[in-house]
Design a protein that fits this description.
It contains nine helices and four strands. With about 250 residues, it is mainly alpha-helical. Strands 1-2 form a two-stranded antiparallel ribbon. The chain has a two-stranded antiparallel sheet with strand order 3-4. Keywords: Nucleus, rRNA processing.
Length: about 250
C-alpha cells in the first residue's frame, strides 16, 4: 500500500465523536464515556472495601465499650461532626464582656478591692450574725476539770461579758475604770444591726470583686485565643472561672 493511498484513506475516515445526551435522561446525569466505567468500577470496589472493614470492626467491637465521642458527635447533612461544648457563662458576664473593655473591668475590680480593704479596716473583722460561728478552745488535763470548768473565771471577766469576742474587759479593768460606751439594750441592739449591715455590704463587695476578676480573666483568655499558636484546652470554662489552655512553646526572636 502506497503512502498516497494511506493518506487518502486517512482523509476519508470520520473523526470519533461522543454520542449526544438524550433529552429523556438528562435528569439522570451525564452520559458516561467508554473509559468512565473503569473509574466507576474503581470507586465501587473502594467503597465495598470500606464497608467490609467497617463490618469487621463492628463484629469485633466490645458491646460494653464506651467512649465520650459516642455522645459528643452527631451526623449533619451526611457529615460526621463533633459537638463543641458550650462555654458556661452567666447573662451578666456575657453582657459585660460584650459591652465593656478589659481595662474598664479591671479598673472597677481595683476600686472594689480598695473599698473592701477600707471596710475591713473599719470593722476590724468583728464577728457578726451569719458570718460563721467562731470557736475558742480551752485545753484541760482531766475530766473533772472539764465538769468544773468556769469560762468567766478562766477569762477573768464577769459572766455577762463571756459571750463577747471583742471589747471584753477583765474584772481588774472594770474595778479600775468605768464601763465605756453604750449600755442601753436598745442602743446595743441598734449597733449590732448596723454592724450586721456593714458585714452584709462587705460580703456583697467581696462577691462583686470576685465576679469582676472572673470576667477580666475570660476576656483576656478570648484575646489570647486570637493567637495562631497551637493550643490545647486543658479545662473547660465555668461560671466561676475561665477556660484553661496549654499553648505550644514558641521561641520569639
Amino acid at each position: 500500500m502506497s503512502a498516497a493511498f494511506r493518506k487518502a484513506a486517512k482523509a476519508r475516515q470520520r473523526p470519533h465523536r461522543e454520542r449526544a445526551q438524550p433529552a429523556a435522561r438528562t435528569k439522570l446525569g451525564l452520559l458516561e464515556k467508554k473509559k468512565d466505567y473503569r473509574l466507576r468500577a474503581h470507586d465501587y470496589h473502594k467503597k465495598q472495601n470500606v464497608l467490609r472493614a467497617l463490618q469487621k470492626k463492628a463484629l469485633d467491637k466490645n458491646p460494653d465499650e464506651f467512649y465520650f465521642k459516642m455522645i459528643r458527635s452527631e451526623v449533619k447533612d451526611g457529615v460526621h461532626v463533633i459537638k463543641q461544648p458550650k462555654d458556661e457563662i452567666t447573662p451578666e458576664q456575657a453582657k459585660l464582656m460584650r459591652t465593656q473593655d478589659i481595662k474598664y473591668i479591671e479598673m472597677k475590680r481595683v476600686a472594689e478591692a480598695k473599698k473592701i480593704e477600707r471596710l475591713k479596716a473599719e470593722l476590724h473583722l468583728l464577728d457578726a450574725a451569719g458570718s460563721g460561728a467562731g470557736r475558742h478552745l480551752f485545753f484541760v488535763d482531766t475530766e473533772r476539770e472539764v465538769r468544773e470548768f468556769d469560762i468567766a473565771a478562766h477569762l477573768d471577766t464577769v459572766p455577762e461579758l463571756v459571750d463577747r469576742v471583742y471589747n471584753r474587759p477583765t474584772i481588774a479593768t472594770l474595778q479600775r475604770e468605768a464601763v465605756k460606751g453604750p449600755t442601753d439594750p436598745a442602743h446595743l441592739k441598734k449597733l449590732a444591726q448596723q454592724r450586721k449591715n456593714q458585714y452584709d455590704l462587705l460580703r456583697q463587695r467581696i462577691e462583686r470583686e470576685k465576679a469582676m476578676f472572673v470576667i477580666s480573666q475570660k476576656i483576656q483568655t478570648r484575646k489570647d485565643l486570637l493567637d495562631k499558636t497551637h493550643k490545647v484546652k486543658v479545662k473547660k470554662e465555668t461560671t466561676t472561672g475561665p477556660a484553661i489552655y496549654k499553648f505550644k512553646f514558641q521561641r520569639k526572636r
